[in-house]
Amino acid sequence: MRQGKYPFIVGFLAVPVILYAVFVIGPYAQAFYIAMTNWRGITANPQFIGFENFTRLFEDEVFWQAVRHHGLLLLALPILVIAIALFFSFMLNVAGGSKGGTMTGVKGSAFYKVVFFFPQLLAVALVAVLFQSIYRPDQNGVLNGFLALVGIEPVGWLTNPNLALWSIIGVMVWQAVGFYVVLFSAGMSSIPRDVYEAAALDGAGRFRLFFSITLPLLWDTLQVAWVYLGIAAFDAFAIVQVLSVDRGGPDGSTTVLPLEIWRNAFTYSKFGYASAMGVALFFLTLTFAVLTLRVTRRERIEF
Question: Domain locations in the chain?
Fold first, then answer.
């Protein structure tokens, strides 16, 4: 039996590994090569220019502006989404107290889970189009219509450089929360109810239950959520493309690296320079994921 183990494993993994190499590793390797050329998407044999694109990249103010925006997204998006999703998950799974010897969520929690998850069913482009109507800068916009009722002048949610990126972050948070409510709810359902029951019998309130039981036992799920949200913060292409003024405006106040990659490749035909940006984005994302997993690593709690 042992003699046939390794041929079986190799035969089982050969096809997926080959497909992964062709369709994932291959394009990455090609992008690294194109990043060292001046290819404009037309010539069959682009000129090899070494690290010239990367030198230009690190002197490009637009590139650093986009990186700063990603920095803000990396702070705001995970913190807001995780905080809101944790609150709702706890309310929907534990905060209802003990009923029939079982910890339950608030009344109607099953219905609320469906409502929170609904934005995940909508395409990103559709969500952006919907929020175009909500953020309209005149009184016909949903938000400005409500502000007009209390005598407040219309606000340029997407036209004000100081508000535009935060308005887009709000859309990203709204869309992401539902998925993480479901994710955290699944994590909470795996926590033995006896632990909650014992703590409740000892007089622990909702605040104590959350910080002493739920949060520590849900740490692995929170770690994964933070990495996923960080990767989402490095993307944000579709939302910014549809919602922002002049694709990344006003005045570049909402631009992100995927949008600049698209602009340089398909507007300016600078495929070599766009690939250099893509390589930089790849290493930024990889560095973030590795550091997050390293910093948030802690001893696993068995239960």
Answer: 60-295
CATH (one of 3.10.180.10, 3.90.79.10, 1.10.3720.10, 1.10.760.10) for 60-295: 1.10.3720.10
- Nearest partner of 176 among 282, 242, 88, judged by Cα: 88
* CA nearest to 85, candidates 181, 9, 13, 11: 181
Q: List CB contacts of 280: < 8 A, sequence separation 6 or more.
A: 54, 57, 63, 257
Q: What is the DSSP letter of 47?
A: P
**CA pair distance 131, 118, nearest whole angstrom:** 15
Distance CA 38, CA 36 (A): 7
DSSP string, 76-136: HHHHHHHHHHHHHHHHHHTTTEEETTEEE-STTHHHHHHHHHGGGGS-HHHHHHHHHHHT-
Cα separation, 144 vs 158, whole angstroms: 12
275 has a pLDDT exceeding 90: yes
Distances (CA, A) of 84 to 79, 91, 168: 8, 11, 17
**Which range, of 37-51, 85-99, 144-158, averages the lowest pLDDT?**
85-99
Pair of tokens at residue 159: 């036209």
Q: What is the pLDDT of residue 89?
A: 85
**Confidence (pTM):** 0.85
Mean pLDDT, the chain, as a whole number?
84
Write out the two tokens for 96: 């209802």
Residues 6 or more apart from 112 whose CB is under 8 A from it?
Answer: 88, 92, 106
Half-sphere exposure of 246 (CA within 13 A, CB side): 8
Give bridge partners of residue 104 from the DSSP assignment.
97
